[in-house]
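Journal club prep, notes for RB
We'll compare a predicted complex against what the paper describes. Inputs for the phosphoric acid mono(formamide)ester case:
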Amino acid sequence: MISTADPVSAAPETTSTERHLLSVADLGRSGIAEVLDVAEAFAEVERRSMPKVPTLRGRVVATLFFEESTRTRLSFETAAKRLSADVLSLAVGTSSVKKGESLRDTIETVEAMGIDALIVRHRSSGACHQVARWARRAHVVNAGDGWHEHPSQALLDCFTLRQVWAERAGVPPASMGIDCFDGKRILIVGDIRHSRVARSQVLAYDALGASVSIAGPGSLLPPSLAGWPVTVEPDLDDALTRVDVVSLLRIQAERGSGAFVPSLREYTEHWGLTSRRASRLAPGAVVTHPGPMLRGVEVAGEVADLPSMLATRQVTNGVAVRMAILFLLLGAPGTDPRAARPVPEGVRVAVGSDRG
Ligand code: CP
């Protein structure tokens, strides 16, 4: 679980899951619930005409993206600014990394400027854990490391699904708790082998009690599923009729996935969510996609524009969820996330139930 521990007093040279968010496994069921509930408070802030709170005034958040990103970087930077933190963004392509500076020296250099949080994306699996071992005082957030994990993506996916189910039930999302995931059937389709999103989703959905299955060409499934709490669906057309959620994944060409399928046309024919396949979805089923989306490959353009496709809503919710992550790591204990007012001892911060 991530905590509100004061980073200055945190012990140096440790990798503590209490200081950082490196994996969904750091959170567990109760930690995920906490992030979702705090994010509800920030979603309310986002609906204000002035969507900004002074909660992290004086704190400095740095984004260090050693791999491309649109959504995650902008979303974390927006989240930090809405919390009134100062934001620094390392442009890796024009930084001293290009002169050969090592990752460790880069991290130590940035941290020496008094940074409170390092939001790190890296092409190497495990890089964020390594950064967390080097960071002496800063909190480290994994914004996607190689094939390993992308925890904030899985959290915003959970937030979005609960929001949709709450709307249908006509109740505030937080009032649903996380029991709404119990028994839900979630199918993850595509390049699971190379997907950090899939790994974080499986951890999150399983922790919340959903039943997770995967589908894709054998070459794009993990070589071993030992320890994966999933079943494999060999027949996508059949599986689509039985699930509540389809999570589509992009073919990770930057990780060499193109070599794992004969052609993209063939991939689409067998595993793409075409209009014909989308028509097989059970009533009420929704489709998620972390983006970037390759229209015409894993999803047909017209399917991407259906109301059941949640991709844009996921992006919107990413800001509130990342505000919650930053708040839980950096905020002063006992602070009302929406107003930075101290909450009297013993008073629980109400989320979701007090919105007009
Ligand atoms: N979903 C996601 O990680 O997108 P970006 O690569 O654009 O950040």
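Talking point for the session: Residues 69-72, 144, 150, 153, 290-292 surround phosphoric acid mono(formamide)ester (CB under 6 Å).
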